[in-house]
Amino acid sequence: GAKREGGGRFRFFEPGMQLRVQARRQLEEDLRRALEKGEFELHYQPLVNLAEGSVGGFEALLRWRHPQRGLVCPDEFIPVAEAMGLIVPLGRWTLARACADAASWPQPLRVAVNLSAAQLADPALEETVAAALAAAGLPPRRLELEITESLLLRDTEDTIALLRRLRASGAAISMDDFGTGYSSLSYLIKFPIDKVKIDRSFVLAMDERPEGAAIISAIAGLCRTLGIVTTVEGIETPAQRRQVAGQGCTEGQGYLFSPPCPAQAIPALLERWECLVCPGG
Ligand code: C2E
Ligand code: MG
Ligand code: MG
Ligand code: MG
Q: Whose CA is closest to 44, among 157, 133, 144?
């Protein structure tokens, strides 16, 4: 390695670096095997209609059941899976699993699946989506595809065309984490989208100062004009729920309603919902 000692000289291998490189390699190897060994699972979090308190569907959130580390959250492994090109096969598994799970839910309930940039760039994406729906026997209108706005910055024309085709096939397109990237309200007009998910950071801002609430109501107002559904992420308190409902947002998602839970827990969750109409209301 490039290792030079002495004042002002660089050391290519810093202490601890070897360990980091090794830990990263180990993580990549574990990840590759995890897909083969079936260590991934999907947890589901309800999307709640704010006016009615009813569940309209669930977002599928990926988890890794690591044999030593227990349940690992996506922020810890998705960036690595993306960097090593594993996200395309992993995303294919996720789409298939989510559609299969959703097919067992009561009729109108939808499932929302997150897509990475590499999946949108994959020429086989449309085929993958169609195959997942067909294998599960799930009508396309029960599938939502969540993409982030950063993803819309590149290849604008190609991306618009792809989103149009996916939409024409019947699936809905959601713009996830809206407001976090280089977002521009003009995206809402430029891109063919059905739903905007307003990032949790605006809910936190709303608690802190009145301008936070003004941003949410401005986004909600524009979306209403454009016929776009709004979902507010990270609703944790009844006060937050009341406020965003009052600003005209359509849907909410957050710990107030339910944390993400395993697929097996969904029937009980829906039953409880029918009784209470709306927990935490
Ligand atoms: P996201 O799509 O914005 O998902 C919402 C995240 O917020 C989830 O984190 C969820 O557990 C968390 N959350 C929900 N309600 C609350 C709340 O009331 N308070 C707080 N503080 N957090 C809440 P999670 O499951 O750790 O996922 C993190 C991110 O990982 C997701 O953000 C998504 O971008 C990505 N991700 C998850 N599953 C997949 C997947 O299958 N494929 C891809 N490409 N990305 C995924
Ligand atoms: Mg999402
Ligand atoms: Mg989100
Ligand atoms: Mg997010």
A: 144
Ligand 1 pocket residue status of 119, Cβ below 6 Å? no
pLDDT of residue 4: 47
Q: What is the ipTM of this complex?
A: 0.98
Tell me the pTM: 0.92
Q: Which residues are placed with Cβ below 5 angstroms of ligand 4, an ion?
A: 177
Q: Report whether residue 46 contacts ligand 1, using a CB cutoff of 6 Å.
A: no
Task: Report CA(70)–ligand 1 centroid distance (Å).
Answer: 18
Q: In one letter, which amino acid is 248?
A: G
Instruction: Write the pLDDT tens digit of every residue in 18-59.
Output: 778 888 899 999 999 999 999 999 999 999 999 999 999 999
The answer to whether the CB of 258 is under 6 A from ligand 1 is: no
CA geometry: angle at 199 spanning 193 and 204, to 5°? 155
Is 266 a pocket residue for ligand 1 (Cβ < 6 Å)?
A: no
